[in-house]
Design a protein that fits this description.
The chain has 365 residues and is an alpha/beta fold. The protein has 13 helices and twelve strands.
Length: 365
Amino acid sequence: MELFKYMEQYDYEQLLFVQDRQSGLKAIIAIHDTTLGPALGGTRMWTYESEDAAIEDALRLAKGMTYKNAAAGLNLGGGKTVIIGDPRKDKNEEMFRAFGRYIQGLNGRYITAEDVGTTVADMDIIHEETDYVTGISPAFGSSGNPSPVTAFGVYRGMKAAAKEAFGSDSLEGKVIAVQGIGNVAFNLCKHLHEEGAQLIVTDINKDSVQKAVEHFGARAVDPDDIYAVECDIYAPCALGATINDQTIPQLKAKVIAGAANNQLKETRHGDAIHEMGIIYAPDYVINAGGVINVADELYGYNQERALKKVELIYNNIERVIEIAKRDGIPTYVAADRMAEERIEKLKNSRSQFLMNGRHILNRRR
Protein backbone atom coordinates (compact mmCIF):
# COMPACT_ATOMS: atom_id res chain seq x y z
CA MET A 1 0.00 0.00 0.00
CA GLU A 2 1.28 3.47 -0.90
CA LEU A 3 0.34 5.07 2.41
CA PHE A 4 0.58 8.76 1.60
CA LYS A 5 -1.25 8.27 -1.68
CA TYR A 6 -4.02 6.35 0.11
CA MET A 7 -4.25 8.91 2.92
CA GLU A 8 -4.44 11.78 0.44
CA GLN A 9 -7.10 10.04 -1.63
CA TYR A 10 -9.40 9.49 1.36
CA ASP A 11 -8.31 12.60 3.28
CA TYR A 12 -6.82 11.01 6.40
CA GLU A 13 -5.12 13.36 8.83
CA GLN A 14 -2.75 11.16 10.78
CA LEU A 15 -1.44 7.60 11.06
CA LEU A 16 0.69 6.66 14.05
CA PHE A 17 2.72 3.52 14.74
CA VAL A 18 3.51 2.98 18.41
CA GLN A 19 5.39 0.18 20.17
CA ASP A 20 6.63 -0.77 23.59
CA ARG A 21 9.25 -3.53 23.52
CA GLN A 22 8.93 -4.52 27.18
CA SER A 23 5.14 -5.12 27.07
CA GLY A 24 4.95 -6.28 23.46
CA LEU A 25 2.67 -3.41 22.41
CA LYS A 26 2.41 -2.95 18.65
CA ALA A 27 -0.40 -0.54 17.80
CA ILE A 28 -1.61 1.58 14.90
CA ILE A 29 -3.68 4.70 15.60
CA ALA A 30 -5.54 6.12 12.60
CA ILE A 31 -7.15 9.56 12.77
CA HIS A 32 -9.34 10.21 9.75
CA ASP A 33 -11.04 13.57 10.30
CA THR A 34 -11.32 16.01 13.22
CA THR A 35 -13.42 18.69 11.54
CA LEU A 36 -16.30 18.16 13.96
CA GLY A 37 -14.13 17.56 17.01
CA PRO A 38 -11.64 15.09 18.53
CA ALA A 39 -11.52 11.67 16.90
CA LEU A 40 -13.48 9.06 18.87
CA GLY A 41 -13.14 5.37 18.08
CA GLY A 42 -12.43 2.12 19.88
CA THR A 43 -9.31 0.01 20.29
CA ARG A 44 -9.44 -3.37 18.56
CA MET A 45 -7.00 -6.20 19.39
CA TRP A 46 -6.67 -8.87 16.74
CA THR A 47 -4.25 -11.43 15.30
CA TYR A 48 -3.76 -9.92 11.85
CA GLU A 49 -2.25 -11.91 8.99
CA SER A 50 0.22 -9.10 8.31
CA GLU A 51 1.12 -5.55 9.31
CA ASP A 52 -0.43 -4.33 6.05
CA ALA A 53 -3.73 -5.99 7.00
CA ALA A 54 -3.64 -4.24 10.38
CA ILE A 55 -2.95 -0.87 8.77
CA GLU A 56 -5.78 -1.35 6.28
CA ASP A 57 -8.21 -2.30 9.06
CA ALA A 58 -7.26 0.73 11.18
CA LEU A 59 -7.71 3.10 8.25
CA ARG A 60 -11.03 1.57 7.17
CA LEU A 61 -12.46 1.60 10.69
CA ALA A 62 -11.31 5.17 11.38
CA LYS A 63 -13.10 6.49 8.30
CA GLY A 64 -16.20 4.55 9.33
CA MET A 65 -16.16 6.30 12.72
CA THR A 66 -15.99 9.71 11.03
CA TYR A 67 -19.21 8.93 9.20
CA LYS A 68 -20.87 7.29 12.20
CA ASN A 69 -20.13 10.17 14.56
CA ALA A 70 -21.10 12.80 11.99
CA ALA A 71 -24.38 11.07 11.11
CA ALA A 72 -25.19 10.73 14.82
CA GLY A 73 -24.93 14.50 15.23
CA LEU A 74 -21.93 14.25 17.55
CA ASN A 75 -19.28 16.95 17.70
CA LEU A 76 -16.62 14.30 17.23
CA GLY A 77 -14.42 13.10 14.42
CA GLY A 78 -13.36 9.60 13.52
CA GLY A 79 -10.41 7.50 14.61
CA LYS A 80 -9.53 3.93 15.49
CA THR A 81 -6.73 1.88 17.00
CA VAL A 82 -5.71 -1.69 16.26
CA ILE A 83 -3.34 -3.58 18.54
CA ILE A 84 -1.61 -6.49 16.86
CA GLY A 85 -1.82 -9.56 19.09
CA ASP A 86 -3.99 -12.36 20.43
CA PRO A 87 -6.41 -10.87 22.98
CA ARG A 88 -6.66 -14.26 24.72
CA LYS A 89 -2.96 -14.55 25.61
CA ASP A 90 -0.96 -11.44 24.70
CA LYS A 91 -2.60 -8.86 26.99
CA ASN A 92 -0.87 -7.43 30.04
CA GLU A 93 -1.19 -4.36 32.23
CA GLU A 94 2.04 -2.81 30.96
CA MET A 95 0.75 -2.95 27.36
CA PHE A 96 -2.38 -0.93 28.05
CA ARG A 97 -0.61 1.51 30.34
CA ALA A 98 1.98 2.16 27.64
CA PHE A 99 -0.81 2.61 25.12
CA GLY A 100 -2.55 5.03 27.49
CA ARG A 101 0.59 7.15 27.62
CA TYR A 102 0.68 7.36 23.84
CA ILE A 103 -2.97 8.49 23.80
CA GLN A 104 -2.19 11.09 26.45
CA GLY A 105 0.61 12.36 24.22
CA LEU A 106 -1.95 13.17 21.52
CA ASN A 107 -3.40 15.75 23.92
CA GLY A 108 -7.06 15.03 23.16
CA ARG A 109 -6.91 14.61 19.37
CA TYR A 110 -7.97 10.98 19.84
CA ILE A 111 -10.29 9.40 22.42
CA THR A 112 -10.49 5.64 22.64
CA ALA A 113 -13.06 3.08 23.82
CA GLU A 114 -13.72 -0.66 23.98
CA ASP A 115 -13.89 -2.67 20.75
CA VAL A 116 -13.42 -6.22 19.49
CA GLY A 117 -10.78 -7.97 21.60
CA THR A 118 -10.73 -5.37 24.38
CA THR A 119 -12.78 -5.02 27.54
CA VAL A 120 -13.94 -2.54 30.16
CA ALA A 121 -11.10 -3.79 32.35
CA ASP A 122 -8.60 -2.89 29.60
CA MET A 123 -10.12 0.60 29.36
CA ASP A 124 -9.74 0.99 33.12
CA ILE A 125 -6.00 0.29 32.80
CA ILE A 126 -5.71 2.84 29.97
CA HIS A 127 -7.56 5.29 32.23
CA GLU A 128 -4.67 5.03 34.72
CA GLU A 129 -2.58 6.98 32.20
CA THR A 130 -5.08 9.22 30.39
CA ASP A 131 -8.53 10.76 30.64
CA TYR A 132 -9.00 10.39 26.88
CA VAL A 133 -10.84 7.08 27.17
CA THR A 134 -14.53 6.16 27.42
CA GLY A 135 -16.37 2.95 28.27
CA ILE A 136 -14.59 2.54 31.60
CA SER A 137 -16.15 1.00 34.70
CA PRO A 138 -19.22 2.72 36.20
CA ALA A 139 -17.16 3.22 39.36
CA PHE A 140 -15.15 5.80 37.41
CA GLY A 141 -18.30 7.57 36.21
CA SER A 142 -18.91 5.74 32.95
CA SER A 143 -22.17 4.62 31.36
CA GLY A 144 -21.72 0.88 31.93
CA ASN A 145 -23.10 -1.77 29.55
CA PRO A 146 -24.03 -0.02 26.26
CA SER A 147 -26.28 -2.83 24.95
CA PRO A 148 -29.62 -1.51 26.28
CA VAL A 149 -28.92 1.96 24.90
CA THR A 150 -27.83 0.62 21.51
CA ALA A 151 -31.03 -1.46 21.40
CA PHE A 152 -33.15 1.57 22.20
CA GLY A 153 -31.57 3.48 19.31
CA VAL A 154 -32.22 0.60 16.90
CA TYR A 155 -35.83 0.48 18.10
CA ARG A 156 -36.25 4.20 17.45
CA GLY A 157 -34.66 3.96 14.01
CA MET A 158 -36.81 0.96 13.11
CA LYS A 159 -39.94 2.96 13.90
CA ALA A 160 -38.80 5.75 11.57
CA ALA A 161 -38.16 3.27 8.75
CA ALA A 162 -41.53 1.63 9.39
CA LYS A 163 -43.24 4.99 9.07
CA GLU A 164 -41.82 5.39 5.57
CA ALA A 165 -42.74 1.85 4.53
CA PHE A 166 -46.16 1.47 6.14
CA GLY A 167 -47.41 5.03 6.69
CA SER A 168 -47.24 4.72 10.49
CA ASP A 169 -44.41 4.19 12.92
CA SER A 170 -46.49 1.82 15.05
CA LEU A 171 -44.96 -1.64 15.29
CA GLU A 172 -48.02 -3.19 16.88
CA GLY A 173 -48.93 -6.34 14.97
CA LYS A 174 -45.88 -6.11 12.73
CA VAL A 175 -44.00 -9.37 12.14
CA ILE A 176 -40.31 -8.79 12.81
CA ALA A 177 -37.61 -11.37 12.02
CA VAL A 178 -34.62 -10.92 14.32
CA GLN A 179 -31.39 -12.59 13.21
CA GLY A 180 -29.13 -13.09 16.23
CA ILE A 181 -30.19 -12.81 19.88
CA GLY A 182 -27.20 -11.27 21.64
CA ASN A 183 -27.38 -8.63 24.36
CA VAL A 184 -28.43 -5.83 22.01
CA ALA A 185 -31.00 -7.93 20.15
CA PHE A 186 -32.55 -9.26 23.35
CA ASN A 187 -33.11 -5.71 24.60
CA LEU A 188 -34.47 -4.78 21.17
CA CYS A 189 -36.93 -7.69 21.34
CA LYS A 190 -38.10 -6.40 24.70
CA HIS A 191 -39.04 -3.02 23.18
CA LEU A 192 -40.72 -4.69 20.21
CA HIS A 193 -42.67 -7.13 22.38
CA GLU A 194 -43.88 -4.33 24.64
CA GLU A 195 -45.26 -2.51 21.59
CA GLY A 196 -47.12 -5.61 20.44
CA ALA A 197 -44.91 -6.83 17.59
CA GLN A 198 -44.81 -10.51 16.64
CA LEU A 199 -41.28 -11.88 16.76
CA ILE A 200 -39.52 -14.55 14.74
CA VAL A 201 -36.02 -15.24 16.07
CA THR A 202 -32.92 -17.25 15.31
CA ASP A 203 -29.41 -17.70 16.66
CA ILE A 204 -26.76 -20.40 16.65
CA ASN A 205 -26.99 -20.25 20.46
CA LYS A 206 -30.09 -22.30 21.28
CA ASP A 207 -30.23 -20.97 24.86
CA SER A 208 -30.56 -17.39 23.58
CA VAL A 209 -33.37 -18.45 21.25
CA GLN A 210 -35.19 -20.27 24.03
CA LYS A 211 -34.92 -17.23 26.27
CA ALA A 212 -36.56 -15.06 23.59
CA VAL A 213 -39.30 -17.66 23.09
CA GLU A 214 -40.04 -17.76 26.83
CA HIS A 215 -39.92 -14.00 27.47
CA PHE A 216 -41.53 -12.66 24.32
CA GLY A 217 -43.57 -15.50 22.84
CA ALA A 218 -41.27 -15.48 19.81
CA ARG A 219 -41.33 -18.17 17.14
CA ALA A 220 -37.97 -19.83 16.59
CA VAL A 221 -36.58 -20.86 13.19
CA ASP A 222 -33.27 -22.32 12.04
CA PRO A 223 -30.52 -19.77 11.20
CA ASP A 224 -30.66 -20.52 7.47
CA ASP A 225 -34.45 -20.06 7.36
CA ILE A 226 -34.72 -16.56 8.83
CA TYR A 227 -34.29 -14.77 5.49
CA ALA A 228 -37.27 -16.36 3.77
CA VAL A 229 -39.87 -16.03 6.53
CA GLU A 230 -43.00 -13.98 5.88
CA CYS A 231 -42.38 -10.77 7.80
CA ASP A 232 -42.69 -7.00 7.65
CA ILE A 233 -39.23 -6.15 8.99
CA TYR A 234 -35.93 -8.04 8.86
CA ALA A 235 -33.61 -7.09 11.74
CA PRO A 236 -30.02 -8.32 11.24
CA CYS A 237 -28.43 -8.25 14.70
CA ALA A 238 -25.52 -10.69 14.51
CA LEU A 239 -22.90 -11.13 11.81
CA GLY A 240 -22.34 -8.63 9.03
CA ALA A 241 -22.82 -9.22 5.30
CA THR A 242 -26.18 -11.01 5.69
CA ILE A 243 -27.59 -8.91 2.84
CA ASN A 244 -25.96 -10.68 -0.08
CA ASP A 245 -26.55 -12.53 -3.35
CA GLN A 246 -27.92 -15.59 -1.56
CA THR A 247 -30.27 -13.88 0.89
CA ILE A 248 -31.70 -10.99 -1.14
CA PRO A 249 -33.88 -13.21 -3.41
CA GLN A 250 -35.38 -14.79 -0.27
CA LEU A 251 -36.32 -11.55 1.52
CA LYS A 252 -40.01 -10.74 1.89
CA ALA A 253 -39.63 -7.85 4.32
CA LYS A 254 -40.47 -4.26 3.40
CA VAL A 255 -37.93 -2.88 5.90
CA ILE A 256 -34.39 -3.84 6.90
CA ALA A 257 -33.43 -2.33 10.26
CA GLY A 258 -31.07 -4.00 12.72
CA ALA A 259 -28.09 -3.66 15.02
CA ALA A 260 -25.42 -5.54 13.06
CA ASN A 261 -22.42 -3.76 11.54
CA ASN A 262 -21.59 -3.94 7.82
CA GLN A 263 -24.94 -5.48 6.88
CA LEU A 264 -24.39 -5.08 3.12
CA LYS A 265 -21.84 -7.58 1.83
CA GLU A 266 -21.09 -5.18 -1.03
CA THR A 267 -22.44 -1.75 -1.90
CA ARG A 268 -24.20 -3.23 -4.95
CA HIS A 269 -26.42 -5.15 -2.54
CA GLY A 270 -27.64 -1.81 -1.22
CA ASP A 271 -28.55 -0.90 -4.79
CA ALA A 272 -30.39 -4.21 -5.21
CA ILE A 273 -32.65 -3.82 -2.16
CA HIS A 274 -33.30 -0.19 -3.15
CA GLU A 275 -34.54 -1.36 -6.54
CA MET A 276 -36.80 -3.88 -4.76
CA GLY A 277 -38.44 -1.03 -2.83
CA ILE A 278 -37.13 -2.20 0.54
CA ILE A 279 -36.54 0.59 3.07
CA TYR A 280 -33.05 0.06 4.47
CA ALA A 281 -31.98 1.82 7.67
CA PRO A 282 -28.18 2.13 7.20
CA ASP A 283 -26.36 0.25 9.93
CA TYR A 284 -24.00 2.93 11.19
CA VAL A 285 -26.88 5.39 11.56
CA ILE A 286 -29.35 3.09 13.33
CA ASN A 287 -26.85 1.37 15.64
CA ALA A 288 -25.14 4.57 16.83
CA GLY A 289 -26.74 4.45 20.28
CA GLY A 290 -23.63 2.94 21.82
CA VAL A 291 -21.25 5.63 20.59
CA ILE A 292 -23.75 8.37 21.46
CA ASN A 293 -23.93 6.91 24.96
CA VAL A 294 -20.17 6.74 25.57
CA ALA A 295 -19.68 10.18 24.00
CA ASP A 296 -21.88 11.59 26.77
CA GLU A 297 -19.22 10.48 29.26
CA LEU A 298 -17.05 13.31 27.93
CA TYR A 299 -19.46 15.77 29.57
CA GLY A 300 -19.88 13.81 32.82
CA TYR A 301 -22.29 10.96 32.10
CA ASN A 302 -25.99 11.70 32.47
CA GLN A 303 -28.25 8.83 31.40
CA GLU A 304 -31.34 10.97 30.83
CA ARG A 305 -29.40 13.34 28.58
CA ALA A 306 -27.79 10.44 26.70
CA LEU A 307 -31.13 8.73 26.06
CA LYS A 308 -32.63 11.96 24.71
CA LYS A 309 -29.78 12.10 22.18
CA VAL A 310 -30.29 8.44 21.28
CA GLU A 311 -33.99 9.12 20.66
CA LEU A 312 -32.88 11.38 17.79
CA ILE A 313 -31.79 8.33 15.79
CA TYR A 314 -35.45 8.39 14.69
CA ASN A 315 -34.86 11.85 13.19
CA ASN A 316 -31.56 10.75 11.66
CA ILE A 317 -33.20 7.85 9.81
CA GLU A 318 -35.95 10.23 8.64
CA ARG A 319 -33.26 12.58 7.35
CA VAL A 320 -31.48 9.76 5.49
CA ILE A 321 -34.75 8.77 3.80
CA GLU A 322 -35.43 12.41 2.92
CA ILE A 323 -32.00 12.77 1.25
CA ALA A 324 -32.49 9.46 -0.59
CA LYS A 325 -35.79 10.69 -2.04
CA ARG A 326 -34.41 14.17 -2.73
CA ASP A 327 -31.42 12.89 -4.68
CA GLY A 328 -32.91 9.67 -6.06
CA ILE A 329 -30.29 7.46 -4.40
CA PRO A 330 -30.28 4.38 -2.11
CA THR A 331 -30.34 5.06 1.62
CA TYR A 332 -26.84 3.69 2.19
CA VAL A 333 -25.51 6.40 -0.15
CA ALA A 334 -27.79 8.99 1.46
CA ALA A 335 -26.32 8.21 4.89
CA ASP A 336 -22.82 8.96 3.61
CA ARG A 337 -24.10 12.13 1.98
CA MET A 338 -25.73 13.27 5.24
CA ALA A 339 -22.46 12.82 7.12
CA GLU A 340 -20.42 14.48 4.37
CA GLU A 341 -22.77 17.46 4.16
CA ARG A 342 -22.45 18.06 7.90
CA ILE A 343 -18.66 17.92 7.78
CA GLU A 344 -18.49 20.12 4.68
CA LYS A 345 -20.72 22.78 6.20
CA LEU A 346 -18.41 23.14 9.19
CA LYS A 347 -15.33 23.18 6.98
CA ASN A 348 -16.88 25.95 4.89
CA SER A 349 -17.90 28.00 7.93
CA ARG A 350 -14.40 27.74 9.36
CA SER A 351 -12.86 28.74 6.05
CA GLN A 352 -15.18 31.74 5.85
CA PHE A 353 -14.31 32.72 9.41
CA LEU A 354 -10.58 32.59 8.66
CA MET A 355 -11.04 34.56 5.44
CA ASN A 356 -13.01 37.24 7.28
CA GLY A 357 -10.32 37.38 9.96
CA ARG A 358 -7.57 37.88 7.38
CA HIS A 359 -9.67 40.56 5.65
CA ILE A 360 -10.00 42.50 8.94
CA LEU A 361 -6.29 42.21 9.65
CA ASN A 362 -5.40 43.43 6.16
CA ARG A 363 -7.71 46.45 6.56
CA ARG A 364 -6.04 47.36 9.86
CA ARG A 365 -2.65 47.27 8.17
